[in-house]
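Hi, here's the filled form for the chain we discussed.

Project: internal
Contact: R.S.
Residues: 199
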Amino acid sequence: MQFIFGRLVFLFLWIYPYVALAEDPVPPSPPKDQVYIKSIEYAGAGCPFPLLAPVFDAGSPGLHLRMDNYSATPERRSFCTINLNLVYPEGWSYTVYATEYHGSIALDDRVTAAQKTTYFFTGLPGEMKVLATWTGPYVNDHYIVTDIMEDAEQVWSPCNDATTLVIHNKLNIDSKWNRKGNSTIAAHTHILTVQWKQC
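And the returned structure, exactly as it came back:
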């Protein structure tokens, strides 16, 4: 059975979220007007709904996935699989460069929580994974988790042959060592930054 609720807003944006040193070369990227989101499909127990139309904004970094009501408790795990179809010009390939997660969390003593995201391209080998864990007692109304993919971890999209980027996110709370209390974790925003290369 599929449970879908909440709200999900996608914004595909173009500025990298790091500050390059003066001697660093400017990262290459295709013309902005030749890259756009063709479609987004999503499903899962806890996947926010409905989906609003993608909006381009050159003033902010990354691909923003803003979520409402995407949360987990000891009684309910949540997962969401998003299929992102990105159109881009021939001669270019992209990969996941960096990820940033914003959310809130409240854990009782001896309760653990985990947020795991896996990225892969359909039809290609290899996965990119990001995992964050917490142990209670812990409370944070605005946690931020950032990760930059190492070169060895990166998986690149096909050159001249666009394919689907699959984003699979899981939220989980383990309270086996403390069945009492009211622990929860909620993911509010997921910022995904891509890196381009000519091929």
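Let me know if anything looks off before we file it.
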